[in-house]
Design a protein that fits this description.
The protein has about 280 residues and is α+β, with helices and mostly antiparallel strands. It has eight helices and twelve strands.
Length: about 280
């Protein structure tokens, strides 16, 4: 079900094509039915990606930048990824699929040393993660299990904020673990207060109820609010162009998005993102 929910846009396009083909084949009943269903499905898409009226970022306030990158545990171009991470020059970095080998490469590269405050869960294959920060971290909630969210309070120039990095299992791996992972993210969001950023590879789209539930806690999606809700981030290592947005930055509770930019990550199957936020007076 989770996989089918993710393909809402593709399902809409398929219905539209069926409607066109039925019309050309003089099958009016089938064409009408497919067209009506396509219109209903498209309305669902539009509703999911319409901006929710997040506050605009005041131009005269300081900002903090946060990068999110899924490294892909089988990546053979990690040195190049180190160059990308350095060029982002982010105040905080959230990395997923951080393996022991990748941690060593990024240490020797020098990019890891730029971030004196670190919460790391370095694990084999796709389970590792890290939150690196130039800014002091307080009240850190480190992962207790593989792929659990990591949270920390950050003393940033715009003011104190909480950052939660996420990377739940995919529904392909385990539907149960996937749903549990989204619930764990919501529980951490519910247990936090004040300005908040939730960032990472959610393995979920705007059409998954477990993701949409996060909106109920005063959060909005940076790509949606900047008019790019239909932009994809996965997969970038396929012959097909990317067709799903799995990588998100959710903000709220007194934070405003100054900008959000997608980042090409050599050798990964995801695009990364660079988010700039500030507080709203």
């Amino acid at each position: 079900l989770g996989i089918l929910q993710a393909l809402n846009v593709q399902f809409t396009a398929a219905l539209a094509l069926v409607g066109i083909a039925a019309g050309l084949a003089d099958r009016p009943a089938l064409g009408t039915a497919a067209t009506v269903l396509a219109a209903v499905a498209w309305a669902t898409v539009v509703r999911a990606v319409r901006p929710r009226g997040a506050p605009a970022a005041p131009p005269d306030r300081p900002t903090v930048t946060l990068g999110s990158v899924n490294l892909l545990y089988s990546n053979e171009r990690i040195d190049e990824v180190g160059d990308v991470l350095a060029s982002l020059d982010a105040d905080l970095l959230y990395l997923t699929e951080l393996t022991p080998e990748f941690a060593e490469v990024l240490e020797s590269h020098g990019v890891r040393g730029r971030y004196p405050h670190r919460v790391e869960d370095v694990l084999p294959k796709g389970s590792g993660s890290a939150l690196w920060s130039r800014l002091p971290l307080r009240h850190v909630t480190a992962p207790e299990t593989s792929r659990a969210p990591v949270g920390a309070e950050v003393e940033a120039p715009p003011g104190r904020m909480t950052v939660i990095g996420v990377h739940p299992h995919t529904p392909v791996e385990s539907a149960v673990k996937w749903r549990d992972g989204l619930r764990a993210i919501e529980a951490m969001v519910r247990g936090s207060d004040g300005p908040l950023v939730v960032i990472g590879d959610f393995n979920a789209t705007y059409y998954h109820p477990g993701f949409v539930a996060l909106y109920d806690h005063g959060l909005t999606d940076a790509h949606v609010e900047t008019g790019r809700g239909l932009s994809p981030s996965w997969p970038t290592d396929s012959l097909l162009p990317p067709y799903l947005r799995l990588d998100h930055a959710l903000t709220g509770r007194g934070l405003a998005v100054a900008s959000v930019t997608d980042v090409d990550v050599p050798g990964s199957d995801h695009t990364g993102l660079l988010l700039s936020v500030t507080t709203v007076p």
